[in-house]
Amino acid sequence: MSESKTMEKLNDSELENVAGGLLFYAGDVDGADNGRPWEVIDNYNGGVVRRFSNYDDAWNYARSFGSNPDNVREVKWDELQWIRNGRR
Fold first, then answer.
1. pLDDT digits (tens, 9 = 90+) for 28-39
2. 25 and 74 in contact (C-beta within 8 Å)?
3. Which segments within the chain are labelled E, that is strand?
4. Residue 82 class from Cβ within 10 Å (0-12 exposed, 13-18 middle, 19+ buried)?
5. Which of 30, 56, 63, 70 is most buried, with most CB under 10 Å away?
6. Residue 16 has pLDDT above 70, yes or no
């Protein structure tokens, strides 16, 4: 892929199709990164997109994925496992 193609910015409708945006606090999970307990989670498969040290940074990053209502919605452990098991 050419460099100009990789540097293209997504328009709003393309951004809506990017997975990501759920927020999960992993500070209570064994083995979690205590320095970065806030995780932005892929809306579709439950994978960790990125970790943050505070809620505000995680929220701002999650919001960057568009206006999907799931973006910036905090989920608990049970719902995260449900998503990861393909039940979404």
1. 999 999 999 999
2. yes
3. 22-25, 38-41, 48-52, 74-75
4. middle
5. 70
6. no
In angstroms, rounded to a whole number, what is the distance separating the alpha carbons of residues 80 and 87?
10
**Helix residue ranges per DSSP H, 1-88:** 3-6, 12-15, 55-63, 77-84
* Residue of 53, 82, 65 whose CA lies nearest to 22: 65
74 contacts: CB under 8 Å, gap ≥ 6: 22, 23, 24, 25
Q: Taking a C-beta distance cutoff of 8 angstroms, is the pair 20, 65 a contact? A: yes
47-51, 73-77, 84-88: which range is least confident on average?
84-88
- Which of the two residues, 26 and 4, has the higher pLDDT score? 26
Only one residue has tokens 């568009």, namely 66
